[in-house]
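Researcher: Please translate sequence to structure tokens.
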Amino acid sequence: MLKIEKISIIDQVIQSLESTIESGEYPIGSKLPPEMELSKELGVGRSTIREAFRMLQAFGLVELKPGKGAFVKNNKRYNLENIRNWFVEKEAELSDLMEVRMAVEPLAVKLAIKKGTKEQINRIVKLHDQFREASEKGNVIQLAELDENFHSAIMEATNNHLLIKIHKLIAETFKEYRTKSFAVPENVKDALEPHEAIVKALIEKHEQKAIDAMNNHLRISLEDIEEVVHE
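Model: Translation complete:
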């Protein structure tokens, strides 16, 4: 397997496991080594291996069977047709999640301006810069991770513990969506430009601009879902 480099640990682990699967070392239907074994081999924590398995499942490469482990499902990631089928299957669930996001995230940017510290706002800006860099490289794994971190950082800047808890529940459910969504190049651009507007409003401490930018971002995200489903 590939050695783990000092960049993004989870990203490197996913790439290492993905490369191993694509090489045919573990044929379709075979079981991957257990978390403990991979943890020792790659020099990372078991939680990192667990998260990597979940991302690989989102890519359609792995199937996780409770109590049994991770099994190779495919040796190549989902193609666009498979992504579309997943969006069709999850359309109702995604619609419900977007309705909740549309209620809490505009409030979050408003509170982030009112209650966020300078350090918290700087973290949001930094994550956006990293997202922009990842978009130039087309790194789907990193984009999904940074998008989640970007929205989480906004929530943390509200310093409202209830909102943060609600967001954690949403983010957990949205993990697979983010991975599949950013596999469609147009969706990356559709996220990048609204992120720019949100960050600009946060820096300027302009509440209404921030709310409008977040509403626009979520509206575009919902349109992206509908476009994939009904294309």
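Researcher: Any highlights?
Model: The first strand starts at residue 62 and ends at 65.
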